[in-house]
Every structure is written in structure tokens, then in C-alpha cells.
Specification:
mainly alpha
Length: about 325
């Protein structure tokens, strides 16, 4: 997307609602705040208890029964949890690598684990269609949607009463849910991060001090989560631009900025490990560090004696000094 697209999304966030066209005409979807989320949780708890009274089994009860019949065993559950943990660890490992030949096998393993995890999770999910939790989630989702769709832009009149919403047929309810999710997909975390450093929004927060809590001229407790998250990202990037030296060629791309900072932190950690290891094994030189390791963190292996350089610098080197003196 371009700057104009991000500006449009920001304006929509500032209004607190989005417009959709349904079978019954134009509708206004309120962006959820703490009030709507709290109503969702309260409704979920209500319908969960109602399901238990109706003797609909909970997930725990269901899987205890499935374990007894061998349809879903403890071994399968442990395998699923191990795959989730492995996938998380693999993704963290990939972030810490810089050379492509090191990343390639990690990515291949990630794809393998993802495929197997999807299959196992799909099998498990197939058993949970009739549980107390599933029933409560379905009913609370319907209640949540009904409470977020209005007939006017002032958000003063709901489009349906609870009774009217329950009278909608399956296709009409499906249309409402699809329109809701399609309409709000633009407010992704990726887009919110980019808006926080772009266009009209960036110019507007420039007139504020560090405190942005009154930016939308309403109590934060009543603000949508999109507004709150946008202000948090703005605060984070303001601090980054103030305290970090960001290359000009990536300064307009939020994801590239964060990836750059992650890489710099990883390189500093790796540089510290190499320096510590070299100090223990080779005085204050890094002669035993491999050429690839040093180039990985932006250092050329020149054979300089760190102890001598430190002496010239007054007897002490910071990690920033180390990175600066030996960068390519």
C-alpha cells in the first residue's frame, strides 16, 4: 500500500467505525473497545455454564473419553505440544541467523513441522465441534457481532435487536461475519505499525509531547484497541528514532526497522560471545574466531590486538567501540 492508503486507514481508525454494505443496506461496524471485549467474555461465561447445565461435555471431559477409546491419546497430545514448541524454537533460531546456507535447513524444517502440526491440529479440532466451549464461543461471537453493528454513523442505534439477529437465516449471519472480518482485516498489526511512522498520522503526533494519551480526545478506556495499539506503536517508534541510528533507506518501513534492530542486537550478542571466548583463549585478540563468524557480525579479521586498542582508548572498550572499530 502507499501513503494515501495508510492515511485512509488512519482516518477510519480515528472515526471508530467502518462502513459495510449488507443485504439490508449500509451498516456501521463499531471498532471494539474494552467494553465490547468485556461483554464478549461475560457472554462466553454465561453460555459456558448454560452448556454445562445442558450436559454438553467440556473439552476436558470429551478428550478423557476420546483417550479411553483411543481416538485421541495422551501420546498424540504430547506430540502436538512438542511440535508447537519446536516450531516456536525454530522461528527464534532463524531470526538469529544471517547466512543463507544456515537459514535454509531451518526453513525446511519449519515447513515440515508446520505441515505435520496442521494435520494433527486438524484431527484434534474435528473432535471439538460439539463441546461446551465451542457452543459458548459460537453464541458469544454472535452476541459480540450483534453489539458491534449499527444503523447510523453516530453509533446510537443497533442494526438488530437480539431477537431480530436470532431470526436471521444462516446465509445472512454468514454474510455479516464475512463482512465483519473482511472489513477489519486492514487493521492488521503490520499496517498499524506502518501507519505509526507514516503520512498524516506522523505529522499530527509531531505537535504533541511524549504523552499521546489525549491524542484522540477521549478517555483511553473508551478507545478502540486499534487506537490504543496505534498510539503504542507511535510511542515505540518515536523512542527508536530518538535513540537509534536508523539507515535512511529503511527509515520509512516499520518492519525493516524492527528487523534491523533485531539483527543489530543479535550481532552485538554474537560479538560479545566471540570477544569473551577470544579473551579467555587468546589474551585480548580474536585470532581464533573464524573469518565467517567475524564477517557475520560485521568485523574484518585484521589481527589487531584488542588489548592495545583498549589501552589507546584509555584502558576500556564498550561493545559499541568494538563494533565501530572493526566494522566493514
Amino acid at each position: 500500500m502507499n501513503e494515501k492508503d495508510y492515511d485512509k486507514i488512519f482516518y477510519e481508525i480515528s472515526k471508530g467505525y467502518s462502513v459495510v454494505n449488507l443485504h439490508c443496506g449500509k451498516a456501521f461496524i463499531k471498532h471494539a473497545s474494552l467494553k465490547e471485549i468485556n461483554l464478549y467474555h461475560e457472554t462466553y461465561d454465561y453460555f459456558l455454564e448454560k452448556a454445562k447445565i445442558k450436559k454438553i461435555p467440556t473439552s476436558k471431559e470429551l478428550f478423557e473419553s476420546l483417550s479411553e477409546t483411543g481416538q485421541w491419546t495422551e501420546t498424540q497430545e504430547k506430540e502436538l505440544q512438542q511440535q508447537e514448541a519446536e516450531l516456536k524454537n525454530l522461528k527464534q533460531t532463524e531470526k538469529k541467523l544471517f547466512r543463507e546456507f544456515e537459514k535454509k535447513p531451518i526453513r525446511e524444517r519449519i515447513n515440515e513441522v508446520k505441515k505435520s502440526l496442521k494435520e494433527n491440529q486438524g484431527l484434534k479440532d474435528s473432535f471439538t465441534k460439539i463441546t461446551a466451549e465451542n457452543y459458548a464461543e459460537k453464541k458469544s461471537n454472535e452476541f459480540f457481532i450483534q453489539r458491534c453493528v449499527y444503523r447510523d454513523e453516530k453509533l446510537s442505534s443497533l442494526l438488530w435487536t437480539e431477537e431480530e439477529f436470532q431470526e436471521l437465516d444462516i446465509s445472512e449471519i454468514a454474510e455479516v461475519f464475512n463482512s465483519y472480518h473482511e472489513c477489519l482485516a486492514k487493521f492488521s498489526e503490520k499496517n498499524l505499525k506502518q501507519i505509526s511512522i507514516s503520512g498524516v498520522f506522523r505529522n499530527m503526533i509531531g505537535v504533541f509531547d511524549e504523552d499521546l494519551s489525549n491524542f484522540f480526545n477521549e478517555p483511553l478506556i473508551n478507545s478502540s484497541f486499534y487506537k490504543v495499539n496505534l498510539l503504542n506503536y507511535a510511542k515505540m517508534f518515536t523512542s527508536i528514532f530518538k535513540n537509534k541510528d536508523i539507515p535512511a533507506e529503511i527509515s520509512n518501513d516499520a518492519d525493516k526497522i524492527l528487523n534491523y534492530l533485531d539483527e543489530m542486537n543479535t550481532k552485538k550478542e554474537k560479538a560479545k560471545r566471540i570477544l569473551d571466548k577470544s579473551e579467555r583463549s587468546d589474551g585480548f585478540s580474536y585470532a581464533k574466531a573464524s573469518k565467517e563468524d567475524l564477517e557475520d557480525i560485521g568485523i574484518r579479521k585484521t589481527g589487531k590486538d584488542i588489548h592495545k586498542i583498549a589501552k589507546e582508548k584509555g584502558g576500556e572498550l564498550t561493545m559499541e567501540d568494538f563494533m565501530e572499530m572493526h566494522k566493514k
